[in-house]
Amino acid sequence: MKENIFKGLGIALVTPFDREGNVDYHALLTLVDHQIKGGIDYLCILGTTAETPCLTREEKTKIKECVVKHVAGRIPILMGCGGNCTAAVVEEIRSTDWTGIDGILSVCPMYNKPTQEGIYQHYRAIAAVSPRPIVLYNVPGRTGVNMLAETTLRLANEFPNIVAIKEASGNMQQIGEILEKRPQGFDVISGDDSLTLTIMKKGGVGVISVVGNARPEELSQMVHLMQQGRLAEATIINDNLFELYGLMFIEGNPAGVKSALQTMGIIEEVLRLPLVPISEKTRQKLSEVLEKLS
Fold it and tell me: Is 166 a catalytic residue?
């Protein structure tokens, strides 16, 4: 039977940069401590929110090593490893030291727009070499291709080491079909903060959250209440956060959450091009909402 340990609140960790644009490793570890203190269940490093396409191979390796050493086994770590060249992803998996990493989050291949058979073959090749459990990542708004429920279920049924999917399609009919027909032990994780409550009501096991970078206490409380079946209490927290969900993403991710984290004094609001900070108008609205939540 499949065994997925990535349940509850996972954080899609941002990569802090200093004012010169270098990775700020001190701020990174401060942010990790902020998450663990906030009651999260696991970290997701080097994913979309980490601006991974703009990191060098050396930076990615150092980020991984720093986080693994600092976490020291206190919570599981899921690490991103994906791309639109299957051979390159396979080689990266083979050449990476996976010590201290508990699972691989692999995004659906982007830009090439493969067919459903191409997506299946891509993940089949990854599953054949992966030394860690795999969490699929479907985010058509970024990749330009949607992995249909049929393909997700085919992979879930055929490969024991494919244990979950981070679903960020926003298509509740599709997500509901996966939840209804999935094999035992295969889980669905929300990839959208605003849909976490809805997906968990239908049987999802949690969220890999962007907003949780800034507000881990509220997000962890909400998710854990849902795990306990306490929907009414979780709904109150979700409603309180709903305005924040929209503001965090209105000018892209992770621009919104980096602004929030600067307001909180945790990191600098620095991104790598082509991403830029949010507008002053949005920053002011975001600051007002954060102040109301404090």
Answer: yes
